[in-house]
UniProtKB/TrEMBL annotation:
InterPro entries: MeTrfase_TrmA_AS (IPR030390), NA-bd_OB-fold (IPR012340), SAM-dependent_MTases_sf (IPR029063), TRAM_dom (IPR002792), U5_MeTrfase_fam (IPR010280). Residues 12-70 form the TRAM domain. Keywords: Methyltransferase, S-adenosyl-L-methionine, Transferase. Belongs to the class I-like SAM-binding methyltransferase superfamily. RNA M5U methyltransferase family. It comes from the Bacteria. The active site is at 343, 343 (nucleophile). S-adenosyl-L-methionine binds at residues 221, 250, 273, 316. This is RNA methyltransferase. One of its GO terms (molecular function) is rRNA (uridine-C5-)-methyltransferase activity. GO terms for biological process: rRNA base methylation.
Amino acid sequence: MSAKSNQRGAKAPLLGSKIKLNIEKLAIGGAGVARHEGMVVFVPQAAPNEEILAEITLVKKNFMEARVVEVLSASPHRREPPCPVAHTCGGCNWQHITEEEQRRQKHTLVLETIKKFNRDLEFNYLPIQPSPRVLRYRNRIQPKFKNGRFGFFARNSHQIVETMDCLITEETLTDKFAEVKAWAEKKNAKDLQRLEMYIAEEGDVRYGLITDEDDGIGFSQVNRFQNEDLLRTALDWAGDGPYKKVYDLYAGAGNFTFPLAAKYASSEIIGVELNPKLVERARSKITDKRMTYFMSDVETYMRRASIGKDDLVVLDPPRAGASEYTMQTLAAAQPRKIIYISCHPVSLARDLNWFFAQTQKMGIKYKLDRVQTFEMFPQTDHVETIAELRVDS
Ligand SMILES: C[S@@+](CC[C@H](N)C(=O)[O-])C[C@H]1O[C@@H](n2cnc3c(N)ncnc32)[C@H](O)[C@@H]1O
């Protein structure tokens, strides 16, 4: 096999060959980023500012992937993971990096991603908000069971890493692992069982199977400790109002909707959510005639919504972000303020680009006022971001 050439004409090493790499930073997805002869190399389980011996595992036209063979000069941010199965378990990909450095990387990643899609956008970028807990923060997990083995999927595999603990999960849940394993064993199923365990709003532990017919409880914020800070920030940034209408798009079971209804006591409150279970849960809690919960896809809802200039819009889409149509329609509607909560920097950056392309096209003065990254998922590369957009008067 001959050496492949990358875009710039440099010779890429052959698949399987070993090279020395310096890790510059971490990328979305969690891998370390290095450069070899001008080509980007992604290396999972690497740490920033370290030299490694790496084996090339994938060669593409514009990038390569490699695995760490040996750490030649360890990063000052590298550490022994607190969890004994962290090296094999697919649950956490940043346990080998100190929490301080995890936050620094996330803070930089979000800024760089927004700037990549929106070069000229100016905004106030606040320091990252650390999570009150770096371990024992998850209140909803999906363990696996097969042939007597209870645990989590190994990294990039459907093999089960056996464990009777998970350090990022609240002890209220891990204390029940033995009970859940015994429950799964009794079912005597040879096939893989995907389980879900969570702490219900009432405080008790619930668990069950996730099947093709039943996808579990649906979305809920997994870090209730950090969710409190996020909620407080969203309400604070939303300002004093008053608003005629307050929209909560991608509303889930009402995490933001009910506090918004309490704060804006004279506003009409509208929640929009696709998942019927979450809509049902939210509707069962509504006691106020000002509140309406629509079971709808947000884009479909936007086709008939009449968002006005005296309104507030909060949106918290899934990782895929909102659609181009949704962002364009929001821009054209010119609500006084928009609070965008994001769990994926790339979709946030792209959505902002769609939004500001539309305001520019229509000659509307709108401003990205402030952005803050929240550490919602310590020990992983996942990150939450909140952004405030408002009419620029
Ligand atoms: C990141 S969660 C946020 C939920 C809620 N804001 C919270 O804090 O709990 C995104 C929510 O959007 C819902 N969703 C996903 N796609 C949707 C769509 N196209 N239209 C409406 N809701 C959608 C999901 O079911 C999920 O509840």
